[in-house]
Design a protein that fits this description.
Layout (H helix, E strand, L loop, with lengths): L10 H15 L1 H8 L5 H10 L1 E3 H22 L3 H20 L1 E3 L4
Parallel strand pairs: 1-2
């Protein structure tokens, strides 16, 4: 849950890791997580279909660039840290873009 408000901690990998761990340790928590009101559909799409919905990709990339830009301009003074943030943002954008896009069921 720390990945939601903190700009450099991505939420989705932690949710997927939680689902993987819960699947092996607690069926009750796993069931709760994959049926969660906000996160469940994204986790199920990734685990079952191997992809992410287009609107999730757009939101993730937009929020990534907004938070990286704000962090680089307001919170970081060293030029090399700004460059590192830029490189990380580019890498994460490439990764998110390369995921299979799930089309919504109509």
């Amino acid at each position: 849950m720390l990945g939601i408000p903190l700009p450099l901690l991505p939420t989705t990998p932690f949710l997927l890791l939680s689902a993987w761990l819960y699947a092996r340790s607690s069926k009750r928590f796993y069931f709760w997580l994959i049926n969660h009101r906000y996160f469940g559909k994204t986790i199920r799409n990734y685990r079952e279909k191997g992809g992410v919905a287009l609107n999730i990709k757009i939101w993730a990339i937009a929020l990534l660039w907004i938070t990286i830009t704000l962090s680089a301009t307001l919170a970081v003074g060293n030029w090399w840290v700004r460059v590192l943030l830029l490189v990380i943002a580019i890498g994460v954008t490439i990764h998110i873009s390369s995921l299979k896009t799930i089309k919504p069921n109509r």
